[in-house]
Amino acid sequence: MANKLAKIRFEDVAIVMDPALDQVAVAKRALRAGEIIAFKDSTVKTARPVAKGHRFAVRDIHKGEFVRQYGYAFGCSRGIRAGETITAKNMESRVPKASLTSFKAPRPTDYDPGLISRTFLGYRRQDGKAGTRNYYLIVPTSMCASETCRQIAEEMSARVGRLKKFPAVDGIVAVPHTEGCGCDTTVSIDRLLRVLKGYISHPNVGGCLIVDLGCEQTNYAMVSRHMNGNRALDRRPIDWLTIEASGGVESTKAKARAIIEKRLPAVSRLKRTPCPLGSLVLGTECGASDSFSGITANPLIGNVADKIIRAKGSAIMSEIPEMVGTLAMLQARFRSKQVAKKFMAAIAWYEDLASRMGVDLSDNLVPKNIEGGLANSYIKSLGAVFKGGTTAIEDVVDYGVALKKPGLSIMQGPGGDLESVTGLVASGANVVCFSTGQGTPTGNAICPVIKISSNNEVFAKLSQDMDFNAGRLLSERKSINGLGDELLELIIAVASGKKTAAERSGQRQFQIWTAGKLSL
Is the pLDDT of residue 230 over 70? Predict the structure, then answer.
């Protein structure tokens, strides 16, 4: 009994992110009922067992008082006693409204000469961008041509792989999808064309074959008009095939083989050369999150995003449904009031769409999130935005729109991993850092995706799918800046050609966000 009631050092079993403002702690291990934990000049006694990753009150949180972590509200107390676990039952999912009435622009970004001088080995493109990979891409303009494109890529990959003639070509890949016809000609078509343009012109693509059926809405005439005026498209080999005009699938495949064999020598001619770190565009993503995602992996990604931006590079943060309730946290970082209003409009668009469809944005919180300690969608959002680091938010862009400004941008887009990563790459990300608390194999068709586990258990359990363990921040008492330096070195190695776990296992996901699609 004496051991059970012995006082436990707080830092051994729990973590408080903002000791001055937070009334909650996160359990670093499972706690039994009745454990006595030293906290500041007092103690906290757990009322019931607290699962690992779950939050418990370190003091009484009176009814009507906002419950805080990271110094920001994620709920409103219904009356919570010190030592009680924070749940959806004793906390109302409500946060105070934030406004821009006292807006003040942030200071200019502090660039780091040491980081500016760093390089990676990339593919310099004629439009000035740098690729981290060199793919030959096969693009269907619609679902009608998608299977044919997949078959072409599969057959040519096997053929080229056997010959081993083009070592500088990272792969021949297709991006099959379910869009391009049988729907309205506004949002769905515009979004498809925007994403396809982003992939065809991407610095990770050295050449491209575009295939249409011929009678779909997104046929040669429409797509070619949309592609006009893009400098990147004028400087790489791009070919077209129309299945109906080519005499059918087998004839199209034969013509495709001839075209690709002709183009690969030119695509393979480009070699990796030193490129400034500022040529990197870091896409940031989180999926299958737990409580530690917002404590370890996401802040770690934010740390390297800051480093890349201070090297005059760029980063993109998305997953708008996972930013609801974060205006108070982000408002001091918007470059201008106009950018802040664009962010608020992106949130409002999602809330309006959810309302019209009769759903709630809190449905973004899945059972595994809750099991991992995320009591509501607001605490998930607060942890998620750490991926964006600490620098100024320079712009807010639509889904798949090419970045217009260096630094950190927010992209309108969903929380779903595949759709979100597809949009990040269409907007220009040439490497992606992806945090996970439960584990996920997701990769991307043309862009390396680095998997970062939030805890040691997932890193060990899914060792073949993970690239980096952010759980070391807690288990080894590493500093976030020191571990961030380690992750930056991995990013540079990956940008220079090192394969990620997702690449080694052939994870080449591509899924366009189809919200609002009306099938006709």
Answer: no
